[in-house]
Amino acid sequence: HQATGRLRWRDEAAEVAELLARHHWDPEGGVFTTADDAEELITRPRELADEATPSGVSQAAVGFLRLEALTGEPRWGEMARSILRNLGSLAARHPTGFGMLLWAVELQAVGVTEVVVTGARTDLADAVRRRFTPGVVLAAGDRLRIRRATNDNGH
After folding, report:
1. For the segment 59-94, what is each residue's pLDDT rounded down to a tens digit?
2. Which of 30, 75, 95, 116 has the most other CB atoms within 10 Å of its CB?
3. Beta bridge partners of 26
4. What gap in Å lies between CA 100 and CA 57, rounded to an integer?
5. pTM over 0.90
6. How do the residues of the chain divide into helix, strand and coil, expressed in percent and rounded to 5?
7. What 3-state DSSP class applies to 25?
């Protein structure tokens, strides 16, 4: 979504996160490598450490925090924070094995910077895209669907 401004990709990310939550979520705070409806194994593996490529759980934590910022859905942030609570002490003891997870820790601690470009200002969106800004989520392009929080009276 950030690269193109097309809502289709934000919605696609939400669908993938939903599938991850439904079929790979570990209630102890993490994600399994295999889905709950896949061939039954003796044990369901979980990949914890980041190696040559980031682990699935680290990518999920970062993705959930960024998706929470883009969609306003607190559920995604809660899932990311569950992962961080579960793996935080391990990452603190072995930081070189959890680089991507530490990015999620930083996003949680510092917060995600949300940049919204409204109207036909592709020049502004392009200025954000040209810079390496891993703590930023950009909402620009297609007409944004913004959910507003409501109180008990529906206002």
Report:
1. 999 999 999 999 999 999 999 999 999 999 999 999
2. 30
3. 30
4. 9
5. no
6. 50, 10, 45
7. strand
Which residue in this structure is represented by tokens 């061939």?
39
Only one residue has tokens 């193109």, namely: 4
- H or E element in which residue 28 lies: none
| Of the candidates 67, 53, 61, 101, the residue with the CA atom closest to the CA atom of residue 79 | 61
Q: How far apart are the first and last CA of the chain?
A: 30
pLDDT at 155 over 70: no
Cα dihedral across residues 48, 51, 56, 57: positive or negative: positive
Specify whether the CB–CB gap between 8 and 2 falls below 8 A.
no
Alpha carbons within 13 A on the beta-carbon side of 7: 6
Contact 106, 133 (CB under 8 A): no
Write the DSSP symbol of residue 97: G
